[in-house]
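Action item from last meeting closed. Structure (399 res):
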């Protein structure tokens, strides 16, 4: 499902090496995701790409190049520059490295000897759809169904959107019809190899390695201490900087004495009319949960617009929100602010999120890593008229 949303770019390193160094025939995997997809869905795609690189590394020396963040539909704060953002601004690179070799895009340019990408693979569906309505995993080089959004320049190289790096060029562009797991395309990336061991599912170890940048966690922790009277010692949410050593027992985390809410609005209000509540419905649920859980504080993370926020404040005057100053926002960007919201939600005694929002799903996982009782985590708002309001599935951690 996610596969056909991606563009893959495989580049090969320049063969020249400084005198004395052993030549390393490194290959780089770059990728991109369809423009409308948001931040937390892109984190899902990273997990699949990291798994693919693990598969490729059984055969050759591959490195995953982290696609710079930018031009995201949901990052709407005006007047701040939100392109070419390196991963280090949001995630701990050393933590990612401990799982699979990764590098920032600018490192790739410096190391590979120029902004050229040897092969761009545009992933697409099969023009004929599923044959006989049967699902099977398959992949084939095909002619492009839609004209790829890359055009040749005077020198015969392809230009297009490469994460906002205007000077980057593709050398070849082809289309690949694919359906299946990410590793299905491995034979097209490996030289002289057709037999590839397949079969990695959602990679839970990779998820654990996606540790947020320390500066964002610190801001979230300070906010918890100041406005929500919550600290790791008191609330038993101790964190280990080295994720490979982190193994909290389920139910061991207590969490700060507040209810945390992720209330997704904007495109979800019309996109998910049946399973997203009205503001009034949400407030009613919040009040009943506070009573039931005996919590007198509520932290709200939301992407609601100004008008809805005003309404919400009127109905819930005591709600706590993380509201960055303009200077904070310029530094942290919309992505950093969203992470801080998630971090604070992840540390609450009880959490309730929004149906099918990957933003809420990432909070579930973070809480699982911290060792919360699943009952306090896998909860979502129901639509005002929703009959069967199925609750989120439990993401189990693997060590
Ligand atoms: C239907 C799909 O929904 C998917 O959204 P969904 O899973 O919620 O989650 P995301 O993929 O993260 O996209 C939602 C974006 O909206 C902002 N946002 C949402 N809620 C909050 C919040 O509580 N606090 C802050 N600070 N920011 C928030 C934030 O930039 C976040 O990355 C989209 O990724 C897909 O493109 C698609 O539209």
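Sequence:
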């Amino acid at each position: 499902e996610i596969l056909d949303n991606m563009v893959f770019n495989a580049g090969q390193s320049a063969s020249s090496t400084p005198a004395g160094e052993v030549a390393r025939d490194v290959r780089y995997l770059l990728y991109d995701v369809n423009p409308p997809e948001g931040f937390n869905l892109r984190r899902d795609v990273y997990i699949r790409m990291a798994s693919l690189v693990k598969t490729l590394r059984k055969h050759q020396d591959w490195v995953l190049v982290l696609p710079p963040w930018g031009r995201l539909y949901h990052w709407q704060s005006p007047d701040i520059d939100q392109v070419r953002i390196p991963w280090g601004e949001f995630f701990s690179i050393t933590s990612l490295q401990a799982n699979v070799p990764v590098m920032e895009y600018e490192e790739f340019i410096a190391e590979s000897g120029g902004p050229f990408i040897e092969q761009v693979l545009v992933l697409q569906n099969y023009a004929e759809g599923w044959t006989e309505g049967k699902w099977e995993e398959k992949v084939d080089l095909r002619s492009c169904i839609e004209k790829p959004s890359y055009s040749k320049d005077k020198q015969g190289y392809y230009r297009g959107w490469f994460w906002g790096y205007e000077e980057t060029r593709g050398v070849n562009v082809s289309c690949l019809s694919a359906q299946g797991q990410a590793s299905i395309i491995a034979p097209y990336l490996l030289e002289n190899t057709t037999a590839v061991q397949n079969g990695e599912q959602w990679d839970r170890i990779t998820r654990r390695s996606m540790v947020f940048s320390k500066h964002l966690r610190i801001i979230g922790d300070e906010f918890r201490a100041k406005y929500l009277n919550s600290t790791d010692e008191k609330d038993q949410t101790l964190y280990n900087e080295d994720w490979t050593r982190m193994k909290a027992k389920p139910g061991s985390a207590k969490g700060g004495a507040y209810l945390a809410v992720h209330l997704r609005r904007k495109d979800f209000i019309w996109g998910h009319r049946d399973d997203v509540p009205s503001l009034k419905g949400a407030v009613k649920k919040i009040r009943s949960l506070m009573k039931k859980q005996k919590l007198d504080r509520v932290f709200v993370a939301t992407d609601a617009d100004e008008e809805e926020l005003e309404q919400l404040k009127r109905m819930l005057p005591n709600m706590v929100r993380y509201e960055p100053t303009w200077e904070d926002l310029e530094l942290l960007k919309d992505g950093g602010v969203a992470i801080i919201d998630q971090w604070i939600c992840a540390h609450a005694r009880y959490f309730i999120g929004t149906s099918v929002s990957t933003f809420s799903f990432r909070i579930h996982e973070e809480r699982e890593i911290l060792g919360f009782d699943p009952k306090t985590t896998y909860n979502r708002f129901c639509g005002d008229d929703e009959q069967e309001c199925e609750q989120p599935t439990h993401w189990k951690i693997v060590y």
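Note appended to the action item: The chain has twelve helices and twelve strands.
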